[in-house]
Amino acid sequence: MTVRHAPARVRTRSVGNLRNVDDTRWLHPVAWWCWALGLAVAASTTTNPLLLIGLITVAAVVVDRRKPDAPWARSFGFFIRLAVIIVLFRLLAQIIFVAPMGTTMLIDMPGVTLPSWLAGIRLGGALMLEPALQALYEGLRLAAIIVAIGAASSLASPSRLLKSVPAAVYEIGVSVVVATTFLPQLASDVARVRANRRLRGRRDIGLRGVSGTVMPVLHGAMDRSIALAAAMDSRGYGRVANVSSAQRRLTALLLVVGLIAATLGTYGLLGTGSATWWGPALLIIGLCCALASVVLSGRRNVRTRYRPNAWKVADVGTVASGAAAASLFLAASAINGAGMNPATSPPTWPTVPILALLGLLAAIIPAFITPPPPATVAPSGREVRA
Amino acid sequence: MIEFENVTIRYRADQPPIIENLDLTIEEGEFILVVGATGSGKSTLLGAINGLVPHFTGGILNGDVRIDQRSTSVHRPRDLADVVGIVPQDPLSSFVTDTVEEELAYTMECLGIPPDVMRRRVEETLDLLGLEELRHRPLRSLSGGQRQRAAIGAVLTAHPRVLVLDEPTSALDPGAAEEVLAALHRLVHDIGVTVVLAEHRLERVVQYADRIVSLGAPESPGSRGTEITIGEPEAIMSTAPIAPAVVHLARVAGWERTPITVREARRQASSLRQLLIGHVPPVRAVSDAGAVAALSDVTVRYGALPALRSVSVTINQGDVIALMGRNGAGKSTLLHSLVGHQKPASGSIDVAGIDPSTLSGPDLVHRVGLVPQEPADLLEASTVAEECAASDRDAQCEPGTTRALLALLAPEVVDTTHPRDLSEGQRLLLVLCIVLAARPSLICLDEPTRGLDYATKERLTRVVTDLAEAGHAVVLATHDVELAAEVASRVVIVADGEVVADGPTSAVITSSPMFAPQVAKVLAPQPWLTVEQVRRALEQDTA
Q1: Of B113, B326, B390, the CB nearest to A304
Q2: Number of domains composing chain A
Q3: Rounded to two decimals, what is the model's pTM?
């Protein structure tokens, strides 16, 4: 029978490396995060629904054009759903908790008079346009920020982001990334074990169903963690360069001194009630000590980086686009506060300040200047059922 | 290269040692095969090579293990990462990164190799193992053979001088296993890497080995590695009770030289073929008793991808069907649709007159049972006895039914043992007993022989044959052609979601070299499948 799925038998040498001159490339993950933070800052400056919807659309367009085909990139849909829930929840909270103000009646629902100890909560009653509009705008602002974060997390690979963290905190980063890859695994384990319980003739209901699922899933997760830890250890994870014991002691000392100084400094700055000269000074000294310690301990790390992300025109341009969007929105709200936060009482049709419009245009630039991500799955590739 | 000097390993001081007084020197460039029953200490021996035993697993190691003059007593596994590359049993659980290319670079990053050297080595290794097309693929989307090659590549980029592999082909279909072994063979011959490999599937690997380390007294399964024999493959195989089918055939035929490969056996087999002329191998009749289950024109999709495309199979009472095909061909999907876990997109599934996906658990177990690929998924109690009691309640049968079955299939299992502490084979039999307690008319087994040694496999063969004789229908998905030849009355081959062959075992598996058992290859064109058939025929002659 023919072996269709094996693209290359072991003995065939391909010369594909030379042929592979295409323009797909991973954009620097930090660039995506900077751009997304720019969008989030821009969103935080305004409650103008047109601008907020514009920002959400910009994020969605960029994600749609530059989202790689990888498991972690599928989270954008989740963030969109979360954003919708936030807007709805904000509206609902408005209806339940806030006394009716304003003049324009939207709906007049039959109200329920609640006992006095539930004052502040009302059910039903008149729903006014003005507070509802206010709630909608505020909900939209939060939604736009959430969508911006979601865009970054589905555009920037977490493991490539890990490559950009400083050597000293690399090991913390590893645990975070390993944990994030474990979660989807855990979800599929739960599904499998639950399906298998049916094979033992159980109805999958009630607390007993849950407890019967938890044990096998936890056992499996435990086994996998141990296997992963053993594999990482035998592949050289955690190797350190030899440094003199004097330097090790200095590193530890700097860290302890730095943290104590920073704590005292923070107290001096915030806790005493009056401004002191020693508060900020201690804080700065403390932070410097801690930073020096991090740099020193980074020297023990022998790791090198494979194909580190390069900063090229597109990467810098993406950062610039995010920065431009944020600063244009900030400028617009300084100049034209009313346009950025349209009045809801009485309700007016929102207008779009020209500076903010330019900001929106700046924000969409990455959709066109960035290289598309490399294809990760071959056309015939499919998830193999384990 | 590797020196074991009077090594004794035990996990607790009050327990008997797993490995006792081992003296072994492995030269540079050797290919060493480690064999032994489940639980005989193969993984322990492999782990001791890079210091995972005892640094990571705990335990007590007396004596000294030295790799390239470095003793594991002072060097931790991470300090030996540049000399020893270790590929664990389940590569998926050992992957640290997301994609093939990043995984290949990971070890080098840890070792601090300069970026330009890393880049070059990654490209070389991609070519060496035929992974170039897969470089950007997520590791989770790879097939079994591809995963294994990626895992080998991931340690190979660090240019280790020793490569240690724990059962690299046990989960693979014959084609993928050949891919992996061809890659290994090439590493040994072209680069001179020292390879230490543990494997149950002797018929696949024994011809590559320079020497064999045999652990334990193999006739008593589960015995610890107190008896260690080391020698050339021919010498070890001529006396070992655990041996591939060609060796057993040689014993039955009384050949002087023990063949290790089909080629060697075939060169000695002409006289045997002469002797067998006039004999007809007994054919296990394909059952035509009433149908137990039927799939008609079934298509199953995961998202947009079809996993089964208009499959029609009828399963009769007394059938033992071996379901074969590549990893990811749709074997598991077919079994899962038989128990109703997968609702077909079109077509109908009928188990004892009912669509299984409409049945709730208690109604399902009396009609069809499935032993999943990971039998442990069905276990949840903390002792074997509790597990059996729970099974009796679930199946609504007499208390003690499951325990009685277990006593029949695996008499050595003790009530108080935790199910996780059972050996792989014992755990499989326990789950099989739980499934059997409800007396389903159809029993499905998903890759039951993965990681099983020969002794357990033999026991499973007997159990399955008895079940079929008692009127159950059995479907087993397997990569093990020898098992299929022994036990199956019918073979169904699935490829890319379609049934490409369905017929009596002898007709289907002798017609393609990939799925033919060793005996069939040696005695072709005569249609013999198992050593047992040949032995019976020769006995008739002498009688």
Answers
A1: B113
A2: 3
A3: 0.77
